[in-house]
Structures are given as C-alpha cells and as structure tokens.
Amino acid sequence: MQLSINRESLLKAINLIAKAADKRHNMVILGNIKLQLSESALILTASDLEVELTSTLKLPAGACIEAGTTTLPATKLKDICKSLPSQAQVNLTTQENERCLLTSGKSRFTLGTLPSEDYPSLGNPENITPLTISRSRLTDLIHKTQFAMAIQDVRYYLTGMLFDVSQQQLTTVATDGHRLALARSVIDVSADLNMQAILPRKAVIELERLASELGKMLGDKDNAVTLSFGREFLQVSLPFGDVDSAGQVSDNLTVTFTARLIDGKFPDYRRVMPSNTDKLALFNQEKMMDVLRRVSILSNEKSRGVVFNFASDGMVEVRANNAEQDEAVEMIQAKYQGEPMELSFNAAYLQDVLGVIQGDLQMHMSQSNASVLVNQLNDDFHQYVIMPMRI
Questions:
Q1: What CA–CA distance (Å, rounded) separates 54 from 17?
Q2: Please, are residues 291 and 281 in contact by the beta-carbon 8 Å criterion?
Q3: Residues contacting residue 296 through CB under 8 Å, at least 6 positions apart
Q4: What interhelical angle do 201-218 and 135-143 show, nearest 10?
Q5: Distance CA 191, CA 169 (A)
Q6: How many whole angstroms separate alpha carbon 158 and alpha carbon 145?
Q7: One-character DSSP codes across 335-351
Q8: H or E, element range at 352
Q9: Helix, strand, or coil here: 79?
Q10: Spatial distance between the Cα atoms of 111 and 78, rounded to a whole number of angstroms
Q11: Are 375 and 384 within 8 A, CB to CB?
C-alpha cells in the first residue's frame, strides 16, 4: 500500500473516527485504525465491537500509488498527523515485517502494523426501518436526555437511551431509576409505525458528538439525517465534506456510524410520568441555578440533598445541611399554587435538568414522597421526572 495525501484531509478523516478505537480492549487490533486504499478512495475504520466509525475519503488523481490495506495504531497515527506542519504532504508506505513508513518533508516515522484481515467487522443492519430527522432536532433529542442514562447498572438496558417511535413522533428517553429525561419530536413517518430500540451509552455520546461536529461546520444551516434501525444495529451516514455557500455538504468525506443495539426491554416510561399533580411552582431558571449552586455547598457529599419548603406563594425556602451540622438556607422567589409542602431532592439531578433548559422552570407536584414532573414553561416536548429523597 502506498498513499500520498494532504495532511488536513487525512487528519480530518482520522479525528472524526479515532474515539471509537479502544486500545484497552482484549483484542489488541481494536486499538488500531484499519486503512483500505483503492484508486478512488481511502476508507478508515475504528471500532470497539459496540460502535464502529468509518470515514470514506474520496481521493484526487495520483493520491493512490499502490492500493492495499493495513492497520495502524490509532493514537500514534493521529498524534503524528497533528504534529506535522499545516498543508504538509503525508506519504504512507507499507513495508515488509509488518511495518509502515510515514514520511512528510524531513520527518520520518516507522510504525508497527497488524494484519487487516484480522480486523473484525461489526456488520450492517438488516430489515431496516429508516427515520429521517433534521440534524438539529436529533442533536436536541440526545443532548436534552443523555445526562439521565445510568453509568453502571445491573439493569443493562438503563445504560443506554431508548428511541421510541409512535404516533408519528420520535421520543428519546433516558433513566437511571432515580430520574428520567424525555424529549420528543414530530417526524414524517406512517401513522401506524411503532418501533423501539435502545442505543448504548458510548454510541449515544458518539452520535451526539458527530452531529454536533457537523453542526459546527454548517453554522446556521441544517440538514436531514437518516437513522437506519435494524434488528441488531443502528446505522447513520453523515456528510463531512466541503460546505458551499448554500450550506450543501459535498460527498468527498462521509462518516458512517454503526452501533450494536442493546437487546433488552426498556421500562414503560409512560407509567412513571406524574399525572395527578395538584401543586405547581414556577421558578426563574438562572436564579434557581444560582441558589442550588450556593446551598448545595453544605449538602451531604454523598446524597447531595437539598430541601424545598413550599409554604406560600411568593417565596420558597431552600436549605441543606451535612453531618458536620453545617447549614445553608436561602429564599427564592416563586409562583406557587397548592397546599404547603416540603420536598427533598438530589441537587445534582435538578442541576442537570436546569443545564438543558433555557426558560422559566415549572415543577408539578402532588405529595412529598411522590415523583415530580419538571419542564420548561410552555414546552411539552421536553419533560423530566425526579424522585424525591429522604434526608
């Protein structure tokens, strides 16, 4: 294999996929990036057997000197390319004894390779259900809910995000058993389409990263994204080529995202949405963030508990204390409807919700030991449920 390529083109293709490589995996080769060179394109693949990212880069005439395949250490290849001067020409040549020579200007690097035929492939989805949604909406659906995914849980299905299609809406749901985040968007699908799929945590984070990177390229422009759901996999192709003045992205660089879905039954989130709430509190989001940040300083380090005392319309008392008998108390302005009540929350859970909404905050409540529904004023497309706690 022999390739001569512009450093910027190669580095962009590597940067978009390198995070999927896993050098800590039991299979050493998964710490490498697979390179497949043909006359017309360079295909780079990184995978950890759960998420596979592939960059397909169209090549100018003369870039491919000799077609072939190999695998190179992902981190070393990326760091070398980053260290080279801007607009440098990079030359890659595979040698005998499982070595690859990388030269650029007066720089020369020899890297160890592993056989490309040993690199595992994740596969492609079968019996595809395609869903088309705007990139900005997809980013919103993931960003507004991903913080509630469980990090580690024996209920493995909670360590991912549910994608639920029903009633011509796509709903994303994440929960760790203590709080739940839900976001929905209207999509153009048949009215009788019903589908559920659980995307693993790492795949959710990678998909959001790619969609956000594309958003940075497009600026105030938007584009459509097609999610291809199969029985075992989700696959998404995203264009990362040059952007013209009309916001159209060329196909000279395409990233294909493939992820293995979690095989499990997600809890029925509709059953945990509070419905019979007779108490309502309205807060300013920025003021609530400030109060929580100050009061939670003296909360218990493990439980992070804060107490809300809803006594009358106009002001709500927020307080926290810890094992050292330290105490913080602050009053916050609020519009409150209902009987007096006291509620305890994990401050971090409420702060996570406040971090993804922009307007005034509504809290729908019933009693001190019942879950609370939180949403932004006049926004029913994003809803959050927080379980109260005992302090």
A1: 7
A2: no
A3: 304, 306, 320, 328, 347, 348, 351
A4: 140
A5: 9
A6: 13
A7: EEESS-EEEEEEHHHHH
A8: helix 347-354
A9: helix
A10: 12
A11: yes
Give the pLDDT of residue 301.
81
CA angle at residue 204 from 200 to 208, to 5 degrees?
175
CA atoms of 29 and 115, how far apart (whole Å) = 9
pLDDT of residue 275: 87
Rounded to the nearest integer, the mean pLDDT of the chain is 93
Q: Cα(245)–Cα(218) distance, rounded to whole angstroms?
A: 10
| 341 residue type, one letter | M
Residue 209: φ, ψ to 5°: -60, -45
For the chain, which ranges sit under pLDDT 50? none
The first and second tokens of residue 189, run together, are: 């699908």
Closest CA to 206 of 42, 32, 52: 52
Q: How many other β-carbons are positioned within 10 Å of the β-carbon of residue 168?
A: 13
| Nearest to 65, CA basis, from 90, 87, 46, 83 | 90
Question: What pLDDT score does 25 carry?
Answer: 85
Select from 227, 211, 238, 1 the least CA-distant residue to 96: 1
Looking only at the bridges linking them, the beta strands covering 341-346 and 372-376 are unpaired
Instruction: Classify residue 338 by burial, with Cβ atoms within 10 Å: 0-12, 13-18, 19+.
Output: middle
What pLDDT is stored for residue 60 in this prediction? 93
Alpha-carbon distance 306 to 299, whole Å? 7
Q: Which helix (H) or strand (E) is 324 found in, with range?
A: none
Under a CB-based contact definition with an 8 Å cutoff, are residues 29 and 119 in contact?
yes
Backbone angles phi, psi at 180, to 5 degrees: -140, 140
For residue 116 the two structure tokens come to: 């490309």
pLDDT value at residue 16: 96
Residue partners of 391: CB distance under 8 A and separation at least 6? 300, 303, 305, 307, 344
CA pair distance 222, 255, nearest whole angstrom: 17
Gap between the Cα atoms of 280 and 390, Å rounded: 21
Residue 130 amino acid letter: P
pLDDT tens, position by position, 339-355: 999 999 999 999 999 99
For residue 153, the model assigns a pLDDT of 81
Q: How far is 86 from 60, CA to CA, in rounded Å?
A: 19
DSSP-based three-state secondary structure for 222? coil
The phi-psi region of residue 247 (left if phi > 0; otherwise alpha if psi is between -120 and 50; otherwise beta) is left
